[in-house]
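User: Run a structure prediction on this.
Assistant: Running it now.
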Amino acid sequence: MAQLLFKDVNKVYPNGYHAVHDFNMEIKHGEFICLVGDSGCGKSTTLRMIAGLEDITAGEFYIDGKLANQMSSRDRGIAMVFQSYALYPHLTVAENLGFGLTLEGIDADVIDERVAATAKILGLTDYLERFPRQLSGGQCQRVAVGRALIRKVSIFLMDEPLSNLDAKQRVTMRSEIKQIHRSVGATTIYVTHDQTEAMTMSDRIVVMRSGGYVQQIGTPYELYFYPKNLFVAGFIGEPPMNFIRGTVENGHFKTETLDLDIKPIVKDANAIEGKKVVFAFRPEAVEVYGVEKKGAAKPAAKTEGYVISSNVDLTELLGDTTNVYANVGNVNVILKINPHHTPEMGSEFKFVIPHKAAYLFDAETEEVIESGLERH
């Protein structure tokens, strides 16, 4: 295990492009950290700076209390797993797993022992004599992870390792990587553009925005329920959070078609009087009002919430839930509801947004003003 510390770390390329701005974070021993964000946000660049593959332009980076800015990659105790498997096609699984140890001049008996132990952890024992072309994508990825695991380093770096797998393989590999992390205990930094991977695998998540700006660092729970700004609120969650823009007038959120009393969700409505704000709620937080199907219980209306009238544009049955594409005035919204309470296509219906599920953001700064969750 290793402890990492970033102090105002910046990366500026020779052409002047500022890829990472003032990255500050302490990563504890054995943590699983995910870096997420849109394309060009600097997450892979940050990973490469940790590995020593990119120079740090400004700031300080420490590994276990030692300044690592100029430390060579070999001395950092790091193993990387890349997006591509990068397996040697002419070598067997066993040879691929032990290749790095062979280069280090480790005794063949020790290599065989480590290969066998690593293969057992990854479920590759029956495939040691096969070549990469004889493996599935998921098995190739396990070999790539095993090649890093076998070195017994204190830091694992993973750069979108599951992006080449199909949906089913990704789910399987997510759980396998998490189990490996728990059994090995190495500090892991994992880069992904997939927020579902980040939510299900990490101890903490770093959300970055285009241009290399860190937006929020926190647990999956903190980022989901307490986003600090519009970017994080819209990035975390699937489908994304719904946003409706309006103005605060006399303690009410107003648009051309909405008039919602915001006093139940803010401590001081007078403090934001006249402000342009964004009213937000998550698709899964709502409950349809009065829609009932044969054989299904009629949904109960929420007594403490906003009742909204809408029209159904489209529905998507996903099995356990239904995505309902509706509109509130001229704003399109997505609702995630019980399939037994799905309104008909083209119909008018009402849904309830509980006060505790509503958020207000400042439209200019994009920072959160308050959420109903904080008041209930």
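The mean pLDDT is 89.
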